[in-house]
Specification:
Layout lengths: L2 E5 L3 H12 L6 E6 L2 H11 L6 E6 L5 H11 L3 E4 L6 H11 L2 E4 L11 H14 L8 H4 L2 H7 L2 E4 L7 H13 L2 E11 L13 H9 L2 E5 L2 E5 L5 E6 L3 E7 L3 H9 L5 E7 L2 H12 L8 E3 L2 E3 L1 H8 L13 E12 L2 E12 H8 L3 H18 L7 E4 L5 H10 L5 E3 L7
Parallel strand pairs: 1-2, 1-4, 2-3, 4-5, 5-6, 6-17, 7-12
Antiparallel strand pairs: 7-15, 8-9, 8-12, 10-11, 11-12, 13-14, 15-16, 16-18
Helix pairs in contact: 1-14, 3-4, 8-15, 14-15
Bound molecules: NADPH dihydro-nicotinamide-adenine-dinucleotide phosphate.
The site of NADPH dihydro-nicotinamide-adenine-dinucleotide phosphate has 34 residues, from helix 1.
Length: 419
């Protein structure tokens, strides 16, 4: 029996909320709080007749720590699930510390305004020191480690699919399959088709920032940075077929390099269609991906936010998306002195997700792990004070929960390796 405050009511949060309501014996009470309360009320009204979970709703601007504190004080949750945007990670963590409540999210911190001079200075120092230039990184949230330890609280970072399940796959490989992992390739394939020439499957601003950034990977403990989309491979994915995929920077590379001892190389690949890439390049060239405000006929607008208004809402893609996703990790390494390869992945069908929770598979593959991560914290299966990423916990109960609640694992002992 527990009380959970869920902040955000977009595509991913809506799936997580559906799934929490399927596990009422643990999620006995939830409060859905977001900037636009009407969305929370609509979802609560839809779910209330179908669940034993008691649902309440609230309005909150999570950019304002004091508003989150007031809400936590009023609702008294056992856990705060941040499924809003990465911009709110730090304000919500501050509120959790102030109110002594556990925290989790699905994506690591990045600032909304990348022109802020104070942030920019720290960012440029980090680029110089670490050697990668993505706007997001773990340093901001890892800086809270001591504070969470001292308060006896847990902060679970990045508990979606990637980051999230991919790191649990790494912990599983280390625990059960290898004595030593040498290389990890994370492969994120979306074989779905929504029929639009251009749309993003999750928040457009976060998605386009991620994909248009320079790529990078870890080789022998160091970052190697490459121009965006400059490493392309083809891979034949189980249940999906052949797809082009591109090497991207991704947040879990940073934590895996720290937590998987001896790993020599870690790469992340995502499949992207030609139509998506052509549209993205064009939008970038005309300045539509910029986060810097501009004046338009006397009104200040942020180009990428205006673009978000024009694009289809990712939460609305469910009905029209067909096909499957296939996301997982390929490992090479040693077991009992012998070379070994191992591939663990999940295949998820867009239309099956839509039938179950009314959304496409990208939101589903993120929202289900968020619920399962919360389940681990609330049932005490993951229980240590501090700030942690998923691979730092026992993967077994988490992967068992994913098998049970909609994202079962598949395993291949001799996969085709990525060149
Ligand atoms: P959406 O844009 O669909 O939803 C975001 C939600 O957050 C909306 O309900 C929005 O409210 C709310 N919100 C935004 N700002 C605030 C604020 N200041 N205060 C309160 N609520 C706010 O995003 P998604 O559901 O697609 O993504 C959610 C998160 O999941 C993101 O952090 C994303 O990066 C992450 N993600 C992680 C993945 C993984 O595998 N780990 C994969 C995909 C996404 P409003 O309706 O008013 O705008």
């Amino acid at each position: 029996m527990s009380r959970v405050l869920i902040i955000g009511c977009g595509g991913v949060a809506s799936v997580a909320i559906h799934k929490c309501c399927q596990v009422s014996e643990v999620f006995s009470e939830i409060c859905i709080a977001s900037r636009t309360k009407e969305k929370c009320d609509k979802l609560a009204a839809e779910l209330a007749p179908k669940t034993k979970t008691v649902i309440t709703t609230a309005q909150v601007d999570a950019d304002k720590t004091e508003e989150v504190i007031a809400l936590i004080k009023e609702y008294q949750p056992d856990l705060v699930m941040n499924i809003a945007l990465p911009y709110q990670d730090l304000t919500i963590m501050d509120a959790c510390l102030a109110c002594r409540v556990n925290y989790m999210d699905t994506a690591n911190y990045e600032p909304e305004n990348t022109d802020d001079p104070e942030w920019r200075k720290i960012y440029e120092e980090r680029c110089e020191r670490e050697g990668f230039s993505a706007y997001f990184d773990y340093s901001w949230q890892w800086a809270y480690k001591e504070k969470f330890e001292k308060a006896g609280l847990t902060a679970l970072l990045g508990c979606g699919f990637d980051p999230g399940v991919t790191q649990a796959y790494c912990a599983y490989a280390l625990k059960h399959e290898f004595d030593e992992i040498e290389t990890i390739d994370i492969l994120d394939c979306n074989g779905g088709d929504h029929g639009y020439p251009f749309a993003t499957n999750f928040n457009p601003e976060i998605n386009l920032r991620e994909v248009s950034a320079p790529g990078s990977y870890i080789e022998n403990g160091k970052w190697v940075e490459i121009p965006a989309m400059s490493i392309k491979r083809e891979y034949d994915f189980d249940m999906v077929g052949e797809k082009d995929m591109y090497l991207l920077h991704h947040e879990e590379l940073e934590s895996l390099a720290k937590n998987i001892p001896g790993v020599k190389r870690i790469r992340f690949f995502m499949t992207l269609g030609q139509s998506y890439l052509t549209h993205m390049k064009c939008l970038e060239n005309v300045g539509m991906l910029s986060t810097t405000p501009v004046m338009h006929e006397g009104v200040e607008i942020v180009p990428i936010q205006f673009l978000k208004t024009l694009l289809p809402d990712p939460a609305s893609l469910g009905a029209r998306t067909v096909g499957k996703t296939n996301i997982g990790c390929i490992f090479t390494g040693k077991k009992e002195g012998k070379d070994k390869t191992f591939y663990i992945y999940n295949v998820c069908d867009h239309q099956e997700c839509y039938k179950e929770v009314g959304s496409q598979a990208i939101s589903y593959t993120t929202g289900v792990p968020a619920m399962c991560g919360a389940l681990m914290l609330l049932t005490g299966k993951w229980n240590k004070a501090g700030v942690y990423t998923v691979e730092e916990f026992d993967p077994d109960p988490f992967l068992d929960a994913l098998d049970k609640y909609g994202l079962p694992r598949s395993i291949c002992e001799n996969p085709v390796l990525v060149e």
